[in-house]
Amino acid sequence: EQKPTINFGAGPAKLPQSVLLQAQKEFLSYNGLGISVLEMSHRSSDFTKILSKAESLMRELLNIPDNYKVMFLQGGGSGQFSAVPLNLIGLKEDRCADYLVTGTWSAKAAKEAEKYGKVNIVHPKLDSYTKIPDPSIWTLNPSASYVYYCCNETVHGVEYNFIPETNGVVLVSDMSSNFLSRPVDVSKFGLIFAGAQKNVGCAGVTVVIVREDLLGHSLKECPIVLDYKVQAEMNSLYNTPPCFSIYIMSLVLEWIKNNGGSIAMENLNKQKSSMIYDLINNSDGFYVCPVGMNCRSRMNVPFRLRTEEGDEALEKEFLDGATKRGMISLKGHRSVGGIRVSLYNAVTLEDTEALASYMKEFQKEHM
Ligand code: PMP
């Protein structure tokens, strides 16, 4: 008997089954039109409806204030590592930006920003990405154009459970891997971006939410497809948008809404992640999570077996055993090794329980 597959991948990641079924049902003929969304003009009235439905659901689910634009762009999170400085570093004449570097993704973003201005790393360099330096030791530059941080470091499993205080400087956040996994007060931010392929859809579309008064300051070398003012004015249709990815995202947003919105997602994600962290904490050191207690991610749970450095042979056995039980994509990022469990919105409580019971069983056998 074939066990159902449970996907714990870090992204592209699991999608709700009902979304896949609906996309399948509508695949050949959307809305009785006789053509697929894949074949539809991005300027047709049917696609326009999909686009505006995605935007209005996004606004509703995140309670986005009216003075913010919502864009659906291409180029991924990595494209935004460039787009953010290209559009915002010129907000002030000094062309300085403050970066909090708490993992792989914020490090990449800071490196990209250096091409366009002066980058100040706000805190002493970390020797391992397992904590968030206390704000009391940050040296924020009051004349920075913006302060940048990555809200959830996908590789290292480090998540902010607070919004940094910037004393009026524009705040920018990469929320690629915890977007819509919990409520967020958008009004505290100048800009939020997120690739869709973890919590809100498939790869190809990147959500950008930006406060209107920040538009119109792009550097002259900013590629036009990345220019927020142009894309905002054209309603993300300066050029052909990732139509099918936007369609899938609209289905996922509807699924989030029907399942109780961001508060319900947060409750579910708290339950799932505490189930795994409690098990780790109570494993007598068999499972080791290197991340500080106050910044453990609800989305990505990294751990090693037996020691902080991990027992690689045993980890391989763990992964092989998981695969036999249909639990896939649990291997840690190639840069850190070990195990990583990703618990995005579409991963159910039952999925998580299945993993937890395997973890308990595996520990009993190998302790
Ligand atoms: N930021 C974060 C937090 C990510 O997890 C990722 C990808 N895993 C990226 C940015 C880069 O996204 P992309 O691959 O879509 O460029």
Automatic annotation (TrEMBL):
InterPro entries named in the record: Aminotrans_V_dom, Aminotrans_V_PyrdxlP_BS, Pser_aminoTfrase, PyrdxlP-dep_Trfase, PyrdxlP-dep_Trfase_major, PyrdxlP-dep_Trfase_small
Alphabetized GO MF terms: O-phospho-L-serine:2-oxoglutarate aminotransferase activity; pyridoxal phosphate binding
Alphabetical GO biological process terms: L-serine biosynthetic process
Cofactor: pyridoxal 5'-phosphate
An annotated GO cellular component: cytoplasm
Keywords of this entry: Amino-acid biosynthesis, Aminotransferase, Pyridoxal phosphate, Serine biosynthesis, Transferase
EC number of the protein: 2.6.1.52
Reaction catalysed by this enzyme: O-phospho-L-serine + 2-oxoglutarate = 3-phosphooxypyruvate + L-glutamate; 4-(phosphooxy)-L-threonine + 2-oxoglutarate = (R)-3-hydroxy-2-oxo-4-phosphooxybutanoate + L-glutamate
Catalytic EC class: transferase
Pathway where it operates: Amino-acid biosynthesis; L-serine biosynthesis; L-serine from 3-phospho-D-glycerate: step 2/3
Protein family according to the UniProt entry: Belongs to the class-V pyridoxal-phosphate-dependent aminotransferase family. SerC subfamily.
Protein name: Phosphoserine aminotransferase
